[in-house]
Amino acid sequence: MSEKSYFIHPQAMVETNAIGTDTRIWAFCNVQEGVVIGADCNIGDHCFVEKNVIIGDRVTVKNGVSLWEGLTIEDDVFIGPNAVFTNDIYPRSKVYRPQPVKTLLKKGATIGANAVVIAGHTIGQYALIGAGAVVTKDIPDYTLWYGNPAVFAGYICKCSKKLNFDKNTSKAVCSCGLSYMLQDGKVVLLEIG
Fold it and tell me: Who is most buried in 11, 27, 81, 117, counting CB within 10 A?
């Protein structure tokens, strides 16, 4: 019998074997069957992951987060402590919908501590949702949002620094060296080199 290539704390309850290499699942987590977790993830204490949730590679889920059926998380996403997700727009006790509402967190997105993401929305690539924000609509790539309801607060680099676009060229160069162009209100990462 081969040794597992991931870590599950002895106080966690994990019903799936679809867990990638070097992933860590900490104490008092409940991970249901049908969940898929990628490689090199970290699922903090007291997290609940409902059946059929898909989690990509290198995802960090901090303590106290519940991930409900209908949620797909792409690679390199960060979810802060006690962030909240929903999967039913009109919940009622003992009323079971045939399908949960789908929510997508795209590659590199960040969800701040105690933020709320209402079901049925897409959080764009490398978008950053500030702590305590309430997301009630789709969030474009490389944008920063905060407040209740969440409002647009600027553009943001992959490295998480704010971007300032030149009004004449519609280009921005981050101090990290990455370059972007603003096209029809959408941020496009320019090819490197």
Answer: 117
Per residue in 9-20, pLDDT (tens digit) is: 999 999 999 999
User: pTM of the predicted model, to two decimals?
Assistant: 0.95
Report residue 192 as tokens. 């490197």
pLDDT score for 192:
67
Strands of the sheet containing 84-85, edge to edge, are 84-85, 116-117, 134-135
Helix (H) / strand (E) containing 186: strand 186-189
Q: DSSP character for 87? A: S
pLDDT of 193 > 70? The answer is no
CB 159 within 8 A of CB 142: no
Retrieve residue 86's tokens.
Answer: 């929903």
- Residue 77 CA to its chain's centroid (Å): 5
| Spatial CB neighbours of 62, under 8 Å, sequence gap ≥ 6 | 44, 79, 80, 81, 82, 83, 113
Angle at 171 between CA 169 and CA 177, to 5 degrees: 145
- pLDDT for 66 equals 98
Q: Are 115 and 129 in contact (CB under 8 A)?
A: yes
Cβ–Cβ under 8 Å, residues 126 and 156? yes
Cis omega before residue 98 (within 30°)?
Answer: no
